[in-house]
Specification:
The protein has about 70 residues and is mainly α. It contains 3 helices and no strands. It is elongated and about 35 Å long.
């Protein structure tokens, strides 16, 4: 049961439905990676930058887990 909770979290991070196809997962990943990539954060405060880096890491982890789920 715990595995299912984690998997749902990955779908929420990428803002997609649990029945998303691999193509939908890839598209969502690219969109979120662009949005949160550390290079895109520019000249923001340290707290905002750290939050963005953490979100980017979560997006990467979610993508890896979901794309390798089969």
């Amino acid at each position: 049961a715990m595995y299912q909770v984690d998997k749902d979290r990955y779908y929420r991070i990428l803002e997609i439905e649990p029945n998303a196809s691999d193509d939908e997962i890839k598209t969502a990943y690219r969109k979120m990676a662009k949005k949160y990539h550390p290079d895109k954060l520019g000249d923001v405060g340290e707290d905002v930058k750290n939050a963005g880096i953490e979100k980017f890491r979560q997006v990467q982890e979610a993508y890896e887990k979901l794309i390798n789920r089969k």
